[in-house]
Specification:
The chain is 68% helix and 2% strand. It has 192 residues and is mostly helical. Helix 1 (2-9) packs parallel to helix 3, helix 3 crosses helix 5 (47-64) and helix 8 packs across helix 10 (143-153).
């Protein structure tokens, strides 16, 4: 029921582009973008800027674990007077921090999706052998994130995944890490 509810909340009244409609993951990202566009007035940030901020937050939460609002603002590199600080401190409708506790995504599926977007965006822009290999060595991605990464990469990017596996298998320093090849295997299985 998530997709119809989100489509209703963002007042989706036009068909989605064909390349988006073919993928449930891209549909969900499109609906979240529409949801963020709706929140533009509240935060003073475009929908794309909110998506980017939520993507980066999911990434930092995966790397560092629970964070307070202040720690999240610092990790994201937000100055206290920027509009983006309201997304964390207010918090955004997709986030929560119950009783002043750590900032978290309201629903784990959204954190999985935003983390997957962060990983695939970084992979596309910087390649695998830079900081992404190091970061994927630092934590175990959950099955939800692996599924979304696999869907975002798709079958067309299997060469990129094979290249990453080869590098992770041949490099002595990368091979010693228990998470990296496990994470790549989970992503590979999701692509299949």
């Amino acid at each position: 029921p998530l997709f119809p509810l989100m489509a209703y909340s963002v007042e989706l009244d036009a068909p989605l582009p064909a390349e988006v409609a073919e993928s449930a993951t891209l549909v969900l990202l499109g609906l979240l973008r529409g949801f963020c566009d709706r929140e533009k007035q509240r935060y003073g940030l475009s929908g794309d800027d909110q998506i980017e901020l939520l993507r980066d937050l999911a990434y930092w939460l995966a790397l560092y674990g629970d964070m307070s609002n202040g720690e999240a603002v610092d990790a994201l590199g937000i100055d206290g007077d920027e509009a983006a600080v309201r997304v964390i401190q207010n918090p955004h409708a997709l986030l929560t921090h119950p009783d002043g506790g750590p900032i978290a995504f309201r629903y784990s599926q959204f954190q999985y999706l935003f983390l997957a977007k962060a990983l695939t965006d970084q992979w596309s822009k910087q390649g695998f052998d830079g900081s992404l290999a190091s970061d994927l060595s630092g934590f175990k991605i959950d099955s939800g994130t692996a599924d979304y990464v696999g869907r975002l990469l798709g079958k067309s990017d299997t060469a990129m995944l094979a290249s990453a596996w080869k590098l992770a298998s041949e490099s002595a320093s990368l091979r010693r890490n228990p998470y990296l090849r496990r994470n790549l295997l989970a992503i590979g299985l999701a692509v299949l």
